[in-house]
Amino acid sequence: MKASHWIGIGALITLSVLAVALVGGWWLWDTVFPRLTVQAEALPQAETPVAGCGASMGMMGWGTARSQTQGEFCSAAGGCGAMASGCPMADSSAPGEGEALTLEEARTALEAYLKDSGNEGLELVDLMEFEHNFYAIAREVDTGTGAMELLVNKWTGAVSPEMGPNMMWNAKYGMHRRGMMGGAGVEPFAAENTLSAEEALKLAQAWLDENQPGVSVEADADSFYGYFTIHALAGERIEGMVSVHGRTGQVWYHSWHGAFIQAEETGE
User: Fold this and answer.
1) pTM of the full predicted structure?
2) What are the φ/ψ torsions at residue 141 (nearest 5 degrees)?
3) Quick one: which of 252, 254, 202, 256 has its CA closest to 227?
4) Cα gap 223→147, rounded to integer Å
5) Cα 267 from Cα 126, distance rounded (Å)
6) How does pLDDT run across 147-194, given as a tens digit for each residue?
């Protein structure tokens, strides 16, 4: 048999295989893939895990994409945008039934949380009640440096680490502290604030002047490992809080508290 004949047979077989592949491909495209797409779109979005916080999960827990609250995140060079806080709203702000807790009951819940956390040598200061939650600072007794910012649900008493800078910028007690995620973590130098408290106050005031005219910063800034948190005042009354990154000067406004109600400073 001539070589040209074998070549013709081989070409015919190749064309047949290609035809079968094309037909099969079109069948998959028209039948199987649409079903997979529909099934994927039908998955409940509320099950999407996001970094969050909860008393039962320690410094990092799971929330849902739909339950995240929003914070204002800005660069010192200008420009702001909404950022997901990374904390389930239900942990600190969801209203419950009955009367809200008192400041004393909130303090009791916070003290129990610190005891169970295993972090020794911390004291509670700046306990405040807001419309949506209680807020307090856990401060290191030996150094006077802020360790973490905590929230208490006003109806359930559930305690959780505050979202925002406390979780994302806190180089010692936050999400990215050394070893927490199973990796190398943050190098020790990252916990040092290269900006001074005075510089942080100026950056915070510049942001307030542009975004909340008439609101001013308090005279002092609370220093944490990697950032500062500052009270924003309308006259002599607390209007809210703003944090400044200790190295980059980025500004993050705390938009999840609601209106200020009262304060009780402890551990002074």
Assistant:
1) 0.64
2) -65, -40
3) 252
4) 9
5) 8
6) 999 999 999 999 999 999 999 999 999 886 643 433 344 455 567 899
